[in-house]
Amino acid sequence: MYKPVKLTDDVFYVGVNDRRTHLFENIWPIERGVAYNSYVIADEKVALIDSVEIGQVEKYLKKIKAIIGDRPIDYLVVNHMEPDHGGSIDIIRKMYPEIQIVGNKKTLPMLEGYFGISDNTLEIKEGDCLHLGKHTLNFYLVPMVHWPETMVTYESKEQILFSADAFGSFGTLDGAIFDDEFEFEYYRDEMRRYYSNIVGKYGSPVQKALDKLANLDIKMIASTHGPIWRKYIKEVINYYDKWSKYETEEGVVVAYASMYGNTEEMAEAVARELAENGIKHIRVHDVSKSHASFIISDIFKYRGVILASPTYCNELHPNMEALTSKLVHMGVQNHYLGILGSFSWSGAAVKKLTAIGEQLKWEIVGESVEEKHALKSNKYDACLKLGTAMADRLKQDRK
């Protein structure tokens, strides 16, 4: 029934698309859906690399059967235990009771915790190999990319890196499975949004993982989400290197909260002044409308950030507080920050945004602006000065 999707003669894609779920991890909007990727190596022994989210298991199993027929599966390699990949493990185990589940010392307790499975497992260590016949699997531990048990599997004959969540992307695979079957730009922004929100907190572990894998000859990267990379491998690895070092481009993200439009006026004034001073990349977000995942993705791309909030019950506006809490939790580094605030009777927003900037160790640019009641001409001019100061600071970095 299913025409097999071949990575090579013996290696197959058996992933599935999810276009129904609205929120990935019940947090992140996925208007373009998401793919759950899994792979079969049909050699003298059969290996299944990762599984899929439980709601997709029926069509997943049909794809596996279309490739191996009535053959047993000898090994299930679990690179990552998160339920969007590990959710089908129990069903697979019941269908293939002799299957041996392969994981590391941090995988196996999770396997027991989620499914009560503690037998017929194979614990591997860093650098261990598993021979399937013509194909050999090599295992490398990459903890905190982005769970502590995460590992990657390298198939040395075909030089395929099964990379777990690393190098993944939001977005379903709409006919095209491989990166040379569609325009690369279509997935680039969703790849950054995926990285910044799912993996972005773990820049240092990503750097360690990249160093560990640097000497491998990789002809294909098969992630658990998004396209299979075989043309743009260098570009994808370079993006991960850049993002995990918090390297950014010239541009400004203006993120504001505004209840009645006064703080929005301040943000608009700064944005216009940025444009008049030659800043081409300006992204303005109302934090009550734009989901934080899109704002955070833009912040991972652009160096300048303007945060603007009214004081709300002597705190930040709740949606600005939620955004800044995420930024602090993720430890986002290496940005320039401009601050705007407004209030009606007691101002606290500028003070709190300043403390957040200091906590993040971001460079605070220009004079922060705080207005009482409606925006007046002197504070409007101060907003323009802040826009100019941010533009000047960004232009100092030009080479």
UniProtKB/TrEMBL annotation:
All copies of domain Flavodoxin-like, residue ranges: 252-391
Gene Ontology molecular function terms on file: electron transfer activity; FMN binding; metal ion binding; oxidoreductase activity
PROSITE patterns in UniProt: FLAVODOXIN_LIKE
InterPro entries recorded: Flavodoxin/NO_synth, Flavoprotein-like_sf, Metallo-B-lactamas, ODP_dom, RibonucZ/Hydroxyglut_hydro, Rubredoxin-O_OxRdtase
SMART domains: Lactamase_B
Family (UniProt): In the N-terminal section; belongs to the zinc metallo-hydrolase group 3 family.
Protein name: Nitric oxide reductase
Originating species: Saccharicrinis fermentans DSM 9555 = JCM 21142
Lineage: Bacteria, Pseudomonadati, Bacteroidota, Bacteroidia, Marinilabiliales
